[in-house]
Write a structure and sequence with these properties.
alpha+beta; 4-stranded antiparallel β-sheet; 6 strands
Length: 167
């Protein structure tokens, strides 16, 4: 399912599914309800909720409809909400999921950047070509370090006028 809100796209086909939680009812039951927590490659989280006509996902699809139908929706959630979802529905996997998605190494900082499509395509190709890169952030960090070393603005030497063309 795809959903766009405030210029941001949430797509279950491209995001990583972290955890699925559902009730005891079967999908044929009108009270069936399932929630899946997803993480976009940008680090944002969202819930994909779906259910029967007597579930919180039920929807009225036309004017004057007397009973709701089965439905689905996407709800963006912040990191706190996503963490709470994992804590509540993660069961035995909760601690593993919390370590994987919510603990950041102390030497790293999370940023959000907007890049053009061409740079995004290059990042994806570089990630596929570099088996040691854990994420696009790793590739960006390596590229920035190489750039600063090449331009000598990493603190080792002063930047010469000849290096100004690289800035």
């Amino acid at each position: 399912m795809r959903y766009q809100r405030d210029g941001k796209l949430y797509d279950t086909a491209t995001a990583q599914c972290i955890l699925v939680a559902s009730g005891k009812e079967s999908p044929a039951n009108p009270r069936f309800y399932r929630q899946a927590l997803y993480r976009k490659r940008t680090g944002e989280f969202f819930l994909h909720c779906e259910g029967g006509p007597e579930s919180p996902a039920a929807r009225f699809t036309r004017l004057g409809q007397s009973k709701p139908l089965a439905g689905e929706f996407i709800q963006p959630v912040d990191a706190i909400g996503a963490r709470e979802f994992v804590e509540e529905h993660g069961g035995r996997e909760a601690s593993t999921l919390l370590d994987r998605y919510f603990s950041e190494p102390p030497d790293q900082v999370r940023i959000t950047a907007i890049i053009d499509r061409q740079a995004d395509a290059m990042l994806r190709r570089l990630k596929e070509a570099d088996p040691t890169a854990r994420s696009q952030g790793d590739i960006i960090s390596k590229a920035l370090k190489a750039y600063f070393q090449a331009t000598r603005i990493d603190g080792t030497d002063a930047v010469s006028p000849l290096d100004a063309r690289l800035l």
